[in-house]
Target: ABC-three component systems C-terminal domain-containing protein
Amino acid sequence: MPKDEILNDVTQSENVLENGDLAGRDINKPTYNIGRITFGGQSQLEKLYDRLEKEKNESAIFSEIVDELLHFKNNADDKGFIGLEKKLENGNRLNYLHFAETSKEKFAKKLLKNEHSETAQLIYAFLLAKVYSSYQTNVYPRISEGLSEEFINQLVTEYIIKPLEDILGNNLLRIYDDEINGMIYFLTGNCHIKWN
Model:
């Protein structure tokens, strides 16, 4: 028998597993580091945090909305505007209306509070772009497949909430779960995200 065939032979009997993994052969467990990877320095968000701290210390006032953020603040649908309630109704998510309105308003107020900081605007634009991109690539295609509400909620947590919490790092703007959800509904309200 050739040597490589002997290496692939696996014999098991009376297996008892209390912790860990049980397999007939190799176990590959990839590790995914989302958002906190740096190459010889700080992440993009950490650099913006440093800039934000410097801005606060210098009392820099900024009076314009940066283009990246303006994109997400504007209505993306040229067919007209319908409210958040109707959008949730169209996506069979009307039971989230109160949470959606509350978290969206909380996020919008925090965004407004920080609108005089160019760096804060860039941070919000960065985060909104992450939410939008992750939703479009990981959540929306599954909605189109007609999967359950619970499964979609798990995808939102796995692909949006947890990764954003991770990349927030020092979280100088104190953005929490409800406000991350508020970003989702902010984008929904401005027609960047659809639930149907």
Notes: Residues 44-189 form one domain. The chain has eight helices and no strands. Confidence is low (pLDDT under 50) at residues 32-36.
